[in-house]
Write a structure and sequence with these properties.
225 residues, alpha/beta, five-stranded parallel β-sheet
Length: 225
Amino acid sequence: MPRQLTFDLPPRPAMGRDDFFVSSANAAAVALIDGWRDWSHGKLVLTGSAGAGKTHLAHVWAAQTDAVIAGATDTFDLTNLPPALVLDRCEEVAGHAAAEERLFHLHNAAVAEGVPLLLIARSAPSRWGLKLPDLASRMAQAGLAYIDPPDDQLLMMVLVKQAADRNMTLTPNMLSHITARMPRDFAAVAALITQADAFALSEKKPVNMAHIRAALAELPADPSS
């Protein structure tokens, strides 16, 4: 397909509760988020692959609790913590002594102040490779919620949502064509929608089946790589 110069403007994702689709792949995680007042030691680790909806679910929880959303490597004033806290990309602290130490002290301050912690990562804390034993033991105390790879229903709904975030409309025929051919992988959804949007923009046309077929053909073997 001929290509022209396009401007890949970032999508504006909808992050409200009504925009989060619940299916068998994520229902258990949603239930744990909704039951946050009963979290073990006031903390939960939310895990799942790239694009699984972890950040969206964190925004839903933050809206309920007035939580601040930040990166796990960010620095905080431990004497003035928010009512609740979301820490994203928690596995990134592993192996960095200063970052692990900061997270350890932040955790302790949050527990002391009764500030609930939602920790987001792609895997369970036991797989992060933490070097600070005290931090590893604190993380092991947290409850664990996992978003499974999408079933067909969720895959289709995520396709519709990510397309809508880019002002794209996918017809039922397009959705059937896509779900019959793409990997059951959230990262593949993002890659496919981004590529189809680029093809449509290059031709200055609404997305069509030709764009979908071309985008499917260019999906990498491992979309998360």
